[in-house]
Write a structure and sequence with these properties.
Oligomer: single chain
CATH architecture of one domain: 2-Layer Sandwich
Strand content: 25-35%
Distance between the termini: 28 Å
Number of strands: 17
Order of helices and strands: HEEEEHEHHHEEHEEEHEEHEHHEEEHEH
Mean pLDDT: 94
Structural class: alpha+beta
CATH topology of one domain: Uridine Diphospho-n-acetylenolpyruvylglucosamine Reductase, domain 3
Helix content: 25-40%
Length: 359
């Protein structure tokens, strides 16, 4: 970050703190729909772009928060590497800072790690306008509380990200997608069975009576796995998985048109299928259940079912968020969140209420 840009942003945050004016941090705006309704004066970080440092031999890339994901992915692909968590874009213009702040991962997440697993360090401005650094640009850099990973999924409520260092993974030499006609119960059982075996599975998705499985790795390993699990060859795998990652698949069409609410239910992978009143799309080896719900859906039942199976239910996308986007936090956990907010943003100017009204 140039000194002038840093000084300008610090001055703006300090002025907002002095006047108690909330700011709404925004990069590409592709995830404005996620979380509670954004509040405050827009603080646009999208113009602050550029890869600061990229060491392919060290498997580390550092870039400014406004850098488009597409630019980062292209640079890494040219060196045979990738973002392990398969970051969702949802629309053109998605930025690295937005991906880290949202904390969302794509189809590869159970097999290659989540966002927080690849973040090595961050540079950020807190609610006081102070320029802070946490972590670093090497694999082993953390001593004490891992603040860099704390920024993953915080939705900008703790700080304005300016620079992020992340771990890279080599691109697989070979990939193949197989499809199976199965019932939902058979699909859940099958993917959990494969999960216990040394197979190079890198994504699974069950939708519309069909199970899709992606295999990634060295060509001999992928071919051996294909022979082992069977199924039908899929030539459209290169377009299918991005459609699941970015919610352009036909399953999500009703939500995109505003006619339904999209729920994201995170549960144990072995959780049996339950009729929750609407069609489901199941990812992550059974651990992620997407539900396109109507306004008549019993929300209390959805959240109770998710809790019963060791997880939680999130109102991922909806026109009306009056029922609350995220599960209510237990009192001890809420207290921790409040203390973190007070430490990083004592006057609550950064994305207030984006996660919970209490902070």
């Amino acid at each position: 970050m140039t000194d002038s840009t840093l000084a300008e942003w610090q001055a703006r945050l300090r002025a907002s703190t002095a006047s108690r004016t909330p700011v709404r941090i925004r990069g590409g705006g592709t995830k404005d729909f996620y979380g509670e309704t954004p509040l405050g004066v827009v603080f646009d970080t999208g113009a602050y772009t550029g890869i600061v440092d990229y060491e392919p031999t060290e498997l580390v890339i550092t870039a400014r928060a406004g850098t488009p994901l597409a630019e980062i992915e292209q640079a890494m692909a040219s060196r045979g590497q990738m973002l392990a968590f398969e970051a969702p874009h949802f629309a053109s213009g998605a930025t690295l800072g937005g991906a880290i702040a949202a904390g969302l991962s794509g189809p590869r997440r159970p097999y290659a790690g989540a966002v927080r697993d690849v973040v090595l360090g961050v540079r950020m401005l807190d609610g006081r306008g102070d320029d802070l650094r946490f972590g670093g640009r090497v694999m082993k850099n953390v001593a004490g509380f891992d603040v860099a990973r704390l920024m993953c999924g915080a939705l900008g409520t703790l700080g304005l990200l300016t620079e992020i260092s992340i771990k890279c993974l080599p691109l697989p030499r070979c990939e193949a997608t197989r499809a199976f006609e199965l019932t939902v119960d058979e699909a859940i059982s099958r993917v959990n069975e494969w999960g216990r075996q040394p197979l190079p599975v890198s994504a699974t998705c069950f939708v519309g009576g069909r199970l899709w499985v992606r295999l990634s790795g060295a060509e001999p390993a992928v071919q051996a796995a294909v022979s082992r699990i069977g199924g039908d060859a899929v030539v459209a795998g290169e377009t299918f998985w991005p459609s699941i990652r970015d919610h352009t698949h036909a399953f999500f069409a009703e939500v995109a048109g505003g006619g339904a609410a999209l729920w994201r239910l995170s549960v144990k992978s072995t959780t049996p299928h339950a009729d929750l009143g609407a069609e489901q799309l199941i990812e992550w080896g059974g651990a992620l259940r997407w539900l396109c719900a109507s306004p008549r859906t019993d929300v209390a039942r959805l959240r109770a079912w998710a809790r019963e199976h060791g997880g939680h239910a999130t109102l991922f996308r909806a026109a009306d968020k009056a029922i609350g986007v995220f599960d209510p936090l237990p009192a001890p956990l809420l207290a921790i969140h409040k203390r973190l907010k007070a430490e990083f943003d004592p006057h609550r100017i950064l994305n207030p209420g984006r996660m919970y009204a209490a902070f």
